[in-house]
Amino acid sequence: MKCPRCKRGRLRQQVSVFVECDAENYSLNKKGIRSRDVQIWGAGWPQAKLLCPKCGWFERLSGK
Question: How many distinct structural domains can be found in the chain?
């Protein structure tokens, strides 16, 4: 999806992800998130943002 402001950048999205894992698990990288004891419960889409890395434009998806 192209940026509505600069028309050059591809939009990126940022969203919070809700994860359940052991309290000692501090490595939620690609390998750590594939662990058997890690569960992804959902995403915080109401607080998500779209942003353009080229011009800095961003918009919150909730509209607030």
Answer: 1
Residue in this structure with the two tokens 């918009």, named with its chain if needed = 59
Which of 5, 19, 16 is CA-nearest to residue 52?
A: 5
pLDDT of the chain, 64 residues: tens digit per residue: 999 999 998 999 999 999 999 998 888 888 888 888 999 999 999 899 999 999 999 999 875 5
Residue 1 falls inside a structural domain: no
- What pTM, to 2 d.p., does this model score? 0.66
How far is Cα 20 from Cα 54, in angstroms, rounded to an integer?
Answer: 34
